[in-house]
Amino acid sequence: VQLVESGGDLVQPGGSLNLSCETSGFAFNSVVMNWYRQAPGKGREWLSSVDNSGITRYLASLSGRFTISRDNAKRTVYLYMNSLKPEDTAVYFCHMYLDRAYYGQGTQVTVST
Known about the structure:
Elements lengths: L1 E5 L3 E2 L5 E8 L8 E6 L5 E7 L5 E3 L7 E6 L4 E6 L8 E8 L3 E3 L3 E5 L2
Parallel strand pairs: 2-11
Antiparallel strand pairs: 1-3, 3-8, 4-5, 4-9, 5-6, 7-8, 9-10, 9-11
């Protein structure tokens, strides 16, 4: 199983980013995919999920700023983030659960002037 995130960057407040997570080694279209983040000095926080039929869920405090999606043909899950704030600065991870929890290596998002 491999999960490889990309798309993190340094962005100014109010900006946007689109994160990607490419996967391999499991039946992608059969599992729920999630995004988490971990800010400096804090625990890992669940953000959003998308199931195999496209039904999505979000952390309420995101207030509609983030959108999760998946492309089963490309075995990829995305997280589009807009109206970014400094408090969104974190390492962002994709996740899925099979026999155990799997996370990628993460991609750094820094929101700063």
